[in-house]
Design a protein that fits this description.
Layout: H1 2-23, E1 28-31, E2 34-38, E3 44-54, H2 59-63, E4 66-73, E5 80-87, E6 98-106, E7 110-120, E8 125-131
Antiparallel strand pairs: 1-3, 2-3, 3-6, 4-5, 5-8, 6-7
């Protein structure tokens, strides 16, 4: 009885000790670059584009992500429509790993959330939103 209880306790201890290490890479890791948007009226607005990858091993791919945008004035309004394309590349670890992008007015999804999209590496994600700036 003592031997089986000791074995069970040892196995439980191993699981508790090893599980956090095994799961450490399995979390959403963010990178939050600024995107300076120049409107058709010549104004500049800083938007935060928080990009995520599932797994810390993909952080270099997040840093290599391309972010492009196009703007268009809104007829009859002092506003600008913005279309952002984010592409997180595949990396040496995987292709098609889960990604996410969020545009907001403050860092790391702070302030007002303007748009969000979920996707996969190697495939573009799109964010569309309107700024109240001509």
């Amino acid at each position: 009885m003592k031997r089986s209880l000791l074995s069970l306790l040892l196995a439980l201890l191993c699981v508790v000790w090893l599980a956090p290490a095994a799961l450490a890479e399995e979390e959403w890791c963010p990178i939050d670059p600024n995107l300076v948007v120049r409107t058709p009226g010549g104004n500049t607005v800083v938007v935060h584009v928080t990009n995520y990858a599932f797994g810390s091993q993909h952080v270099p791919a997040l840093r290599a992500a391309s972010i492009e945008y196009a703007v268009q004035s809104v007829p009859g309004l002092a506003a600008t429509d913005v279309d952002v394309t984010v592409l997180v590349p595949d990396d040496a670890y995987a292709s098609g790993f889960p990604t996410r992008t969020v545009a907001s007015t403050q860092p790391f999804e702070g302030g007002i959330i303007l748009a969000r999209d979920d996707g996969k590496s190697g495939q573009p994600m799109r964010l569309r939103f309107r700024l109240d700036v001509p």
